[in-house]
Amino acid sequence: xxxxxxxxxxxxxxxxxxxxxxxxxxxxxxxxxxxxxxxxxxxxxxxxxxxxxxxxxxxxxxxxxxxxxxxxxxxxxxxxxxxxxxxxxxxxxxxxxxxxxxxxxxxxxxxxxxxxxxxxxxxxxxxxxxxxxxxxxxxxxxxxxxxxxxxxxxxxxxxxxxxxxxxxxxxxxxxxxxxxxxxxxxxxxxxxxxxxxxxxxxxxxxxxxxxxxxxxxxxxxxxxxxxxxxxxxxxxxxxxxxxxxxxxxxxxxxxxxx
Length: 258
Hints:
about 35% helix; about 25% strand; 12 strands
């Protein structure tokens, strides 16, 4: 059995570390480079960097911030936000990232997933999905809809169907961002995570809602996630990486200890 992973998300806006609740009320809370360095020293397994306004602003990613983070950490590091072409993805990898993270652009142009997977390998391609709970319909039978552009544009696309399509196109991993749970610290969206984990054979990373180590345990077990992405818990120093991992290990979760 593979070890479960603890991943932190660095949402970056205008070069500053930011945090939102349900994708709104976004506030600047610090320096992403300093935080990345701290989490690396504390034993974090991976980092995810999102330039959260690159897509909505129709601009490229802030490559200088990516490069500065990559210089400070020596754990897997994935980057997303404003990646629209294979060339965009190549720039991020050349700046030091191990993985590229596609979201809005992949919904608009699914071929981007296939092209990036062919160019860099599936292990370097992460499909990130921003998901909103809705009333089930014929078009959205799961009751979970894909939303793009930082939660601004609903697409009428079923999240489970999109996850399966992403795997078929060559994504090597999925990040499931629950807009309903984002920043609430009330627990992950277990039903959404489990539905997708059971529908695909690639690793699934749960994102949105983590507030306590118990929430992480729940999503790794009941939610069947391969990894949990945490933000507020670490950003506001409510828990350390070591505390989270010790709790999970104590409850029988296979986890890499520092």
